[in-house]
Design a protein that fits this description.
binds FE2/S2 (inorganic) cluster, five-stranded mixed beta sheet, 2 domains, 6 helices, DNA polymerase, domain 1, alpha+beta, Ubiquitin-like (UB roll), about 160 residues, elongated
Length: about 160
């Protein structure tokens, strides 16, 4: 992963939801902008844009990361999955169903990020305790403060994995 920013426009090539894509970028282009404005993948939301809320969560090489903090030049040859792909995956279905059953969705602005994190944490081996899973998900904020429903869904998902 490159750590020094380019001085001029450059071509970024990466794997996006299983497809090889390329795009011309400015030195300061961020992944969240590319997703939403270039590829029209708007599941990752603009929230704080400083890495505090998790609304823009993607998977970078299989692990959750905030798209608002990822500079495009860091992503040469890397793999990105967004909610548009993860929402279709078998692994995320129990998470989505649990959130719906447990009233873990209100306005829905945080929900894509919650699904990204919860699906990831539910797949960890060994299975995390509820406390560990909650700590892991502490980067996902809900402005509707619907944490009780989200926590119930997390409990269900972890117990289904038992
Ligand atoms: Fe990226 Fe808040 S918008 S963490
Ligand atoms: Fe509204 Fe979480 S449901 S921000």
């Amino acid at each position: 992963m490159s750590t020094s920013p380019p001085e001029t426009m450059y071509t970024l090539r990466l794997e996006l939801n299983g497809d090889q894509v390329k795009v011309e970028c400015q030195p300061d282009t961020r992944l969240l902008t590319l997703l939403r404005e270039n590829w029209h993948l708007v599941g990752a939301k603009r929230g704080c844009e400083v890495g505090r809320c998790g609304a823009c969560m993607v998977w970078l090489n299989g692990a959750p990361a905030n798209a608002c903090l990822l500079m495009a030049y860091q992503l040469q040859g890397q793999s990105i999955r967004t909610i548009e792909s993860v929402a279709e995956a078998v692994a995320s279905q129990p998470v989505q169903q649990a959130l719906a059953r447990c009233a873990g969705v209100q306005c829905g602005y945080c929900t894509a990020g919650i699904v990204m994190s919860m699906t990831y944490v539910a797949q960890l081996e060994p299975r995390p305790s509820l406390e560990e899973a909650e700590r892991f998900m502490s980067g996902n904020l809900c402005r509707c403060t619907g944490y009780a429903g989200i926590k119930r869904a997390l409990c269900e998902v972890l117990s289904e994995q038992a």
